[in-house]
Amino acid sequence: MVIKNKDGTNYKLKGPNPVASKQNHWDDNFEMHNMEWEEVELPDADDVKKFNSDFEVKDVFSEPIEVAIPEERPTVAETPEIVDKLKVNRKEKAKNIVDVWVLPAQIEHNPEAERGKQYTIKYFDKKLVESIIVHNDTFHMVFWTNVDFCKCGSIIYLWRNSEGDVLRESSWWKVDKVLDETEDERLKKSGGFIHVCVPSEYTPDFSD
Q1: Strands (DSSP E) along 48-104, which ranges?
Q2: Boundaries of every domain in the chain
Q3: Which fold has domain 90-199?
Q4: What is the average pLDDT value for the chain, to the nearest integer?
Q5: Is residue 189 helix, strand or coil?
């Protein structure tokens, strides 16, 4: 890369000092300044006095050293407490009671239809149902209710709690599986149905 001047011409380096242009070598007629150093004698590295001590290292001791071994305490396995989510006290029950909107659905199977259209779903009028939330996370929502019209494919929308306050984090769910007393022993005493739901792509309007 060529270095340019401000006017665009090539930059040229300055030549050697004119005073030293004809000096090819140094002759003997020169004077040195601050070069008169005193000689320093370094000690001989071979003549080193070793550390004198009467300490002797022994690998075998006359008396064995006792090593304290900690006592092993017996571990007691804690019995996990199994809590039936359907058997809750009044405060917990009131906290988990939620009014949900249900858009009942009915899945119909037509084997004679063309492939991809053999299953159709039909929705009915929405209904407001009181339910108990058993489990709720990002991917699944499980609730209990005693109504029998909430079938697989029905759309669920969590609306308000037992105090009448509208839930802030509401979302749409689709019933993926319905359990009765033949599939869950807890329902033999409580009755009703357990609905296992997954997130729904269909988000109907439940406003009045």
Answers
A1: 97-103
A2: 90-199
A3: Thrombin, subunit H (2.40.10)
A4: 76
A5: helix
